[in-house]
């Protein structure tokens, strides 16, 4: 059996690492890269550090409006799939690459497996929410990270082909945490002491595309009395420059602005942080597993269990509310097994069982 894995952005490279590794032991696999992320620090660094096989096919789509980017992907993925004719396509998460991959394959009647299926924020202003819903509704096999994802699918009438396997981002974290501790020199390079700094990452459209929102977030970060290390996503950098806010950030005494980091450096940075301030999906999960208090700059989250367990708190874009949370949030709670174990292995076992006609 031949399986194509379609990826295009930073979190998908991380999500696919363990899955491709496990799959390759049993099946012919190849990676299709849409090219949605392309800078070295957003792309190739992950292939190098995580030993992900080089893509068999690179579509070089690059940046663009949603319609244009997704449309170009759809066209090129379709033509790639008609040449390579895989028996199954696997897509990850909720990006434009995810939707284009799932839709192209479904229309060609190729079996679609969606990893990280069933996540919902119930906020349709979020482009990722549209991608999630459409992808789930054209997928054949739906691999869920959490119990709430299974419930969300059931509430939309999707019951067949749904499997609770656990989370593959967390799989990668467990595989690479010790390696990051041994190899990364990020704390020395940035002159940081463990648990004496915060980390911030912001890239969500709801935060970056409205000047007042991003200005409030930056002001709250600058007002912190702790050092804040801020690896700036390229989308956020260009917004900050356009809104005239980048200089303010660079001149703030407590903020250390850096380029996006490779995975090993980022894990080590996060693992040693006192708190994380973020709007990232993947980082909310990583913070939970690493027991780093997480302040999420969003009105909602798909990763509801991290909030219910007390390790993640949601705060919108009010400056004073963000500042208050940054200084006061202090989880008291223990942790539960939200994300399962060995998700990638479980996904491959499911695929083997389905292929053998045992489910
Ligand atoms: C995308 C995903 C988002 C995911 C994020 C991970 C969609 C709709 N969004 O958001 O769900 O959380 O990736 O980081 O699919 N850019 C560069 N270099 C790059 C990549 C992007 O400069 O290598 C800049 C370009 O100006 C581009 C902008 O970032 O226009 C946004 O990139 P895009 O991939 O469209 O969306 P992200 O915000 O990265
Ligand atoms: N990440 C990284 N370097 C960074 C910031 C994030 O390697 O400078 C990793 C992080 O560990 C997580 C993933 O990128 O696994 C999250 O990606 P992002 O926040 O871009 O997207 P999201 O998860 O919100 O879709």
What's the helix and strand layout?
Blueprint lengths: L1 E6 L2 H15 L3 E6 L10 H6 L7 E2 L7 H19 L3 E5 L3 H12 L3 E7 L9 H11 L3 E4 L2 H9 L6 E3 L3 H16 L2 H4 L7 E5 L3 H4 L2 H12 L4 E5 L2 H9 L3 H6 L3 E4 L4 H9 L3 E4 L2 H9 L4 E4 L6 H5 L3 E4 L3 H10 L14 H13 L4
Helix pairs in contact: 1-7, 1-17, 3-4, 4-5, 7-13, 10-16
The chain binds uridine-diphosphate-N-acetylglucosamine and uridine-5'-diphosphate.
Uridine-5'-diphosphate binds next to helix 1, helix 13 and helix 14.
Features:
six-stranded parallel sheet; Rossmann fold; 16% strand; 2 domains; seven-stranded parallel sheet; binds uridine-diphosphate-N-acetylglucosamine; single chain
**Strand count:** 13
The CATH topology of the largest domain is: Rossmann fold
Work out the helicity level. 40-55%
CATH architecture of the largest domain: 3-Layer(aba) Sandwich
Low-confidence stretches: none
Element string (H = helix, E = strand) = EHEHEHEHEHEHEHHEHHEHHEHEHEHEHH
Strand coverage percent? 15-25%
Q: In words, what does this structure look like?
A:
This protein has 359 residues and is an alpha/beta fold. The chain has two domains: 2-167 and 340-355, Rossmann fold (3-Layer(aba) Sandwich), CATH 3.40.50.2000; 178-328, Rossmann fold. Helices cover 47% and strands 16% of the residues. A seven-stranded parallel beta sheet has the order 3-2-1-4-5-6-7, with helices on both faces. Helix 6 (147-155) links the parallel strand 6 and strand 7 (162-164). Helix 1 crosses helix 7 (168-183). The longest helix has 19 residues, at 66-84. The protein is globular and about 60 Å long. The two termini are 17 Å apart. The mean pLDDT is 97. Uridine-diphosphate-N-acetylglucosamine binds at residues 9-11, 36-39, 42-43, 63, 94-96, 127-128, 203, 234-235, 238.
């Amino acid at each position: 059996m031949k399986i194509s894995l379609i990826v295009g952005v930073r979190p998908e490279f991380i999500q696919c690492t363990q899955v491709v590794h496990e799959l390759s032991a049993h099946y012919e696999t190849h990676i299709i890269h849409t090219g949605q992320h392309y800078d070295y620090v957003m792309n190739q660094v992950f292939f190098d550090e995580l030993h992900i096989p080089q893509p068999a096919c690179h579509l070089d789509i690059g940046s663009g409006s949603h319609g244009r980017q997704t449309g170009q992907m759809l066209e090129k993925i379709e033509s790639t799939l008609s040449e390579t004719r895989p028996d199954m396509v696997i897509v990850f998460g909720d990006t434009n690459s995810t939707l284009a991959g799932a839709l192209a394959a479904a229309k060609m009647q190729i079996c679609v497996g969606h990893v990280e299926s069933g996540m919902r924020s119930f906020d349709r202003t979020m482009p990722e929410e549209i991608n999630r819903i459409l992808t789930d509704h054209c997928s054949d096999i739906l691999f869920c990270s959490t119990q709430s994802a299974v419930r969300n699918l059931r509430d939309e009438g999707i019951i067949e082909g749904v499997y609770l396997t656990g989370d593959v981002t967390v799989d990668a974290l467990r595989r690479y945490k010790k390696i990051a501790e041994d190899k990364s020199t990020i704390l020395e390079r940035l002159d940081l002491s463990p648990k004496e700094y915060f980390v911030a990452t912001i890239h969500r459209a709801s935060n970056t595309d409205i000047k007042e929102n991003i200005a409030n977030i930056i002001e709250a970060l600058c007002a912190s009395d702790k050092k804040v290390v801020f690896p700036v996503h390229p989308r956020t950098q260009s917004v900050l420059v356009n809104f005239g806010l980048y200089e303010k950030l660079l001149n703030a005494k407590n903020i250390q602005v850096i380029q996006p980091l490779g995975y090993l450096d980022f894990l080590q940075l996060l693992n040693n942080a006192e708190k994380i301030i973020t709007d990232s999906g993947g980082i909310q999960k990583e913070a939970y597993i690493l027991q780093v208090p997480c302040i999420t700059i969003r009105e909602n989250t798909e990763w509801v269990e991290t909030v219910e367990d007390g390790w993640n708190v949601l705060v919108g874009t009010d400056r004073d509310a963000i500042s208050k949370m940054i200084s006061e949030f202090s989880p008291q709670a223990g942790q539960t097994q939200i994300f399962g174990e060995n998700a990638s292995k479980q996904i491959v076992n499911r695929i083997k069982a389905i292929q053998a006609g045992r489910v």
